[in-house]
Amino acid sequence: MHESIERDTPPVEGVNAGKTRRSFLKQAGVGGAAVLGGGALLGAVAGPARAGHSDNVPDLDILNFALTLEYLEASFYTEALGGSGTTGVPASSAEFGRGDISGSRVFAGFGGRIRSNAYGYLTDIRDHEVTHVNFLVGKLGSNAVRACTFDFSSALGSVQSFVDTAQVLENTGVMAYDGAIRYVDAGDFLQAGAQIATVEARHASYLNLINGDSPFPDAFDMGKKPSEIVTAVLGTGFVTECKPEVLALFSRLP
Asked: Which residue in 34, 177, 215, 238 could disulfide with 69, CB within 3.0 to 4.6 Å?
């Protein structure tokens, strides 16, 4: 049975009350979603631990943290751009078609090639996120948590709102990965982590560019602990209900 998410989540430093759902993430300094799994990246759920490194955070918790956030991202893009969905990601008709994207004022200042490629690039990002969900579900098997339910209506009123929110979600992904990797013990996840982070950073760079921000704003990316990411994401209101095992996961995250 679903359990509702309380909206009055604990504050994150730097976040002011009364912000929009998207700006909650931005003001929290968390800009997309998580330690993401990429196709053909992880060899197995178990693996040798790094020499001299141990903690009390199971790797399965970190992978399920990644999966929960991947469910969110994949559902967001599928609702915006349409798609057949997958496990935990409902099929959806598109809010925005090719003409909506390429004809939006978001892309008005760009040349014809960027405008004409925009829809294809955004659907590529959608497909990457769906692939991440499929991959993590496959690797976690019976240990995979079920998806929460989401409400993205506040973020999909216009193409501008869609790409602005996408930018924040993708940058949050990079921060979440950088913050969570310290808790991963299995050595094979470290190689995967580097590959995962670069994919998320490429998504973020593209969305930064089309939103008028630097594609590469800093020499180093800032990490956020999983619990900080969860607090910020719940504060947006995008997450409306979660299964008990997901709420238990959230309570265990560092």
From this structure: 34
- β-pairing, 149-150 vs 239-242, is antiparallel
pLDDT in tens, 199-215: 888 999 999 999 999 99
What's 142's DSSP letter?
Answer: G
What distance in Å separates the CA atoms of residue 107 and residue 159, rounded to the nearest whole number? 10
Q: Are 129 and 56 in contact (CB under 8 A)?
A: no
Whether 172 shows a pLDDT value over 70: the answer reads yes
Q: Are 32 and 73 in contact (CB under 8 A)?
A: yes
E-state strands within the chain: 3-4, 149-150, 239-242
Could you tell me if 33 and 73 are in contact, meaning their C-beta atoms sit under 8 angstroms apart?
yes
Provide the edge-to-edge strand list for the sheet that holds 239-242. Answer: 3-4, 239-242, 149-150
Q: Which residues pair with 186 in a beta bridge?
A: 49
Domains of the chain: 3-8+18-38+56-252 (1.20.1260.10)
Here the tokens at position 30 are: 């968390």
